[in-house]
Design a protein that fits this description.
With 554 residues, this protein is mainly α. Helix content is 65%, strand content 5%. The chain has two domains: 24-153 and 165-220 and 248-411, no CATH class; 424-553, 2-Layer Sandwich (Transcription Regulator spoIIAA), CATH 3.30.750.24. The chain has helices at residues 2-9, 12-20, 24-51, 56-73, 88-119, 131-148, 150-154, 165-175, 181-200, 206-221, 228-232, 249-281, 287-303, 313-321, 328-348, 353-367, 370-376, 381-396, 399-421, 460-465, 489-504, 516-524, 527-531, 540-553; strands spanning 81-82, 310-311, 423-426, 446-452, 476-483, 508-512.
Length: 554
Amino acid sequence: MFRSIHDSLEPKIVTLFKRQGYSRADFIADTIAGLAVAIVALPLAMAIAIASNLPPERGLFTAIVAGFLISAHGGSRYQIGGPTAAFIVTVATVAMKHGYEGLVLATIMAGIILMIMAFVRAGELIKFIPYPVIVGFTSGIALLIAFSQIRDFFGLSIATVPPDFVDKLYVYLAHLHETNFIAVMVALVSIGIIIAAKRHTPHIPGPIIVVTLSALAVWGLGLPVETIESRFGSIPSMLPSPVWPEITFDKLRLLLPDAITIATLAAIESLLSAVVADGMTGTRHKSNAELLGQGVANIASGIFGGLPATGAIARTATNIKAGARTPVAGMMHAFWLFIFMLLLAPFIVKVPLAALAAILMVVAWNMSEIKHIREIMHAPRTDRIVLIVTFGLTVLVDLNFAIQAGIALASILFIDQMMKATHIRAVENDEDDPDSIQNKSIPHEVEVYEIQGPLFFGVAEKLVDTLALFEKPSQVFILRMRYVPLIDAAGLHALEVLHERLHEKNTHLILSGVNPQVRKFIEKSHIDERIGKENIVDHIDKALARCHELLARD
């Protein structure tokens, strides 16, 4: 068991090096791929930090530190980690409520939670989050991201933008008359360049073209738009020294809900990104190792003045298309970003914020899941309800609450569907069934009912209520359970109550067609001792034989 846990947590890079080694050609391919990804990641890292109401260097620190560690310790061959747009709303809210130091502590706590998830092997459990919930909160986040960029997109003079969606709307409407049309033009041209680059020069990332041309335009033409330098001043050209935040029990308790939200988002997005990478390359990621790598990276990111980090789907796809071969490509992407920060800091600060807002607008559109929303809107009504509720709560209330409520609602609706799919009824004749009651001799003193579906808490009450259907009690009641694949504690209790009530009416209970798995739980709960071991059989013929014994004895 220890070995299996160790294997599941072993970094992918170690597994690959053990299996196939690492050649000079691999290093060259990974270095080139890392450079391509770094070019894409540079403007995104800064834009995400600024959208979170934090200085741009925080995004760069995250991309460098967390990006390196996610590749070095993670479980995916091609994963690129760093700050992502999915965190913008949460990061901005936590930083506004608790300050940057509170955000750092929440990020470190999230890293510890992710490591715990890895050690308890929770990587496989993420897949059980309902798909409409994922699409609902992802599209909700996309709307919030786009909405958060309106200030810089329109060049509005707003000192602080509130995190709440409705409050943002009121503030934007109050300042809309201040629109800077030069900023709007810069943003629209930037979007046009990104779209054109994707169509005509796919090998050159649109965002880096936008950042370069817009910075040159501001410097050369003196455009009256806000830049990184005018709002934040200069950015450092080196990583900061590691610093631990002040830790108290009250702070830990206060920040725990936010840390759980960050950890949940990091786990979901990183594993989704790993799945996408597997689909593009035919590889297979190690989910628990990926969670461990995410945990280590988030702890380090917090210590080095960064933001929460996770796997980035777009950057991971770029890494694959650029010819990456191993996780070294992700580590090299972090190295190249460090070089960019070291050499290009004076130029980077000339980038207009309207251009960065345009980049995030495009990111938000790509995150919006329009195609998947259309698919779900043609799915069963329950999926549509879950999608709409999760989306609405994400936008209007809170991301953490939206995820919890979405999962809870999806679970309730699933239970309702399972209840409707489980039938408890008098056995009907079926000519195609060799064990049909039509082909058996059933004494008049015997009632035969059948359960079709799992016997769990949602349908347990139905079983007990079947007694109300009897006009007069029979001497023997056979409950056929051949189509009961599983049973839970409520189902076991329902069998016990059914036996007691039948016993009060001097009616014998026989369970027929009980599969080994269900029988094991019946025996563990000792209900078989009350019903009688001889009254629990695996076939209807044995149940009828037992009927004749009981009737003869009575």
